[in-house]
Write a structure and sequence with these properties.
This protein is an alpha/beta fold and about 200 residues long. A hairpin with a 2-residue loop joins strand 1 and strand 2. The protein is globular. About 30% of the residues lie in helices and about 25% in strands.
Length: about 200
Amino acid sequence: MLAFDTVACIRGGRVLFEGLSFTLGQGDAALVTGPNGVGKSSLIRLAAGLLSPAAGRIAGDAPRALLTDQASLDEELPLARALAFWARLDGDAAKVARALEALALTDLANIPVRLLSTGQRRRAAIARVLASGAPLWLLDEPANGLDTAALRLLETAIAAHRASGGAVLVATHTPITLPDPIAIDLSQRPPQSEPAA
């Protein structure tokens, strides 16, 4: 579904990482860790096609769902309608009810998005990914704003997605239970020295 082949990322003239290679197939998960500023979010954006690699190649044509810090849900719409807008674009609005249930949001389906708490908004953004039907999930700091119970819901949703043949790329600084992941620790991948001029 996704393959990085000796990929390098440069942001603001600084090499964040280079020589990064991994492959995600059906049922796989990769867990990207490291302190702030090492390129976790940039790696997710590279996988989403929002950034181009400075070197190397990224391949894979599986439909992708991206979770960032922006939920991109209409603030004035009730939650279920805001999610249905995106689900219709992705081709299956019927998945909204299942996504709401999976994230314990069913009771909030008719509440305008603007009235949701921080944690509820984060769960709503995750529900948007679930409702997309995309086989490849790209999750940037998905646990931000989640309490312990909501984190368990996220972990359960990821496990179910993998069990059904989906794959997930997770960038996080918060511990997330993710059985048998491909470990990508960017703090252990210092950029190679610049060649002498």
